[in-house]
Amino acid sequence: MSGYKYPTLSCTIPLYNSLIDHVEDTIDKNNINDNIDDNNDNTDDNDIKNIMKEAANKCKNKLLEYYNKTNDTYLIVTILDPRLKMKYFIDNN
């Protein structure tokens, strides 16, 4: 958690963003693999791809559920955090 001794909401938002990006990359990667010649894949590989895709989608939905519960609170918390202030927003546009 970025080396902070006491993680706060302002620390978790970048973590949520990173996790959601990683899960979306995993979902996209599985979609690309699905388009590659499926004739060479056996049914076990297809089953594993489907399980991975389903798990990644459920993970993304759960992350978004909790992310959306933060509403705009994280904006205020981040700005009030003396370690970050506006730096996080300036660095991440």
Number of strands: 0
Query: Which spans have pLDDT < 50 for at least 5 consecutive residues?
Result: none
User: Biggest β-sheet, characterized?
Assistant: none
Distance between the amino and carboxyl termini: 21 Å
Report helical residue fraction. over 70%
Number of domains: 1
Give the helix tally.
4
Series of secondary-structure elements, N-terminal to C-terminal: HHHH
Morphology: elongated
Q: On the 0-100 scale, what is the average pLDDT? A: 75
Secondary structure class reads mainly alpha
Indicate the radius of gyration in whole angstroms: 18 Å
Task: Show the helix and strand layout.
Elements: H1 9-35, H2 43-69, H3 73-80, H4 87-91
Structure in words:
- This protein has helices spanning 9-35, 43-69, 73-80, 87-91.
- With 93 residues, it is mainly alpha-helical.
- It has one domain (9-91).
- α1 runs antiparallel to α2 and α1 packs across α3.
- The longest helix is centred in the N-terminal third of the chain and has 27 residues, at 9-35.
- The protein is elongated, with a radius of gyration of 18 Å.
Summarize the structure.
The chain contains four helices and no strands.
Question: Could you list some keywords that capture this structure?
Answer:
elongated
